[in-house]
Amino acid sequence: MSADIASLLKRSVELLPVSDSPRLDAELLLCHVLGKSRTFLFTWPEYQLVEAEQVEFEALFARRLLGEPVAHIIGSREFWSLSLAVSPVTLIPRPDTELLVELALQLPLPERAAVVDLGTGTGAIALALASERPNWRIVAVDAAEGAVALAETNRQQFGFANVLVLQSDWFQQLTGQTFDLVISNPPYIEADDRHLSEGDVRFEPASALVSGDSGLVDLARIICEAPRHLHPGGWLLLEHGWQQGEKVRQLMLVAGFVEVATHTDLADRERATLGRWPISG
Ligand code: GLN
Hints:
The protein is α/β, with parallel strands linked by helices.
């Protein structure tokens, strides 16, 4: 029995119970099997898959039906303009996190800014910044050994010589080092958030998602420790939950940050807050 691209993509409706983006999911699985771009799918809907391709598509489709994230099935995810290797050891990069990259690129930073990405995971933020600012010196740290290895693999894939990947629990291995920008998408979900038992997040490690009962433990720790690692006039830029804006602003103001401001994500929800360490105290 042979199948063409159009008929296989029609089967994406079967994914409705497990996915918000069934059509896109089926397209990405098919692209992976064929080793082709999505443009190919649209241009050649009548292309007949050979048997081996069909068998592989069926296997991947069955995994998606069981809820496994597409990024885990195909082993990669697009972030910014980069195709990043992903794995179950860390968070799958989210489109919302591109807001952090955009905001960082708009800051008044020196030509050769020193930057640290805390909890880098796949390396998404650090590598996106490196792709746009070859003169920045970027340190990317993660507490999880597996994430460090993954971020380093991704770094090597693009050959970015201006990114250094290190294992560190937040600032622990960065004693005495100061930066122009501290940027992070830390875990910020409450331990009992019911979303943790639904959808793709079930396949991601809790260590990358959950932060104490209130979801604020890691954000608070970073805000408290960042001043020691910022140059005067340096910036702290954090992603947080859409209901945490007020608390994050408060924590930054109490810590002594100025120019504190929150920005909204693609769904118009408060998602990123930045603050500046004063030039003189
Ligand atoms: N925004 C992510 C989610 O809602 C959480 C990311 C994080 O904890 N840093 O799934």
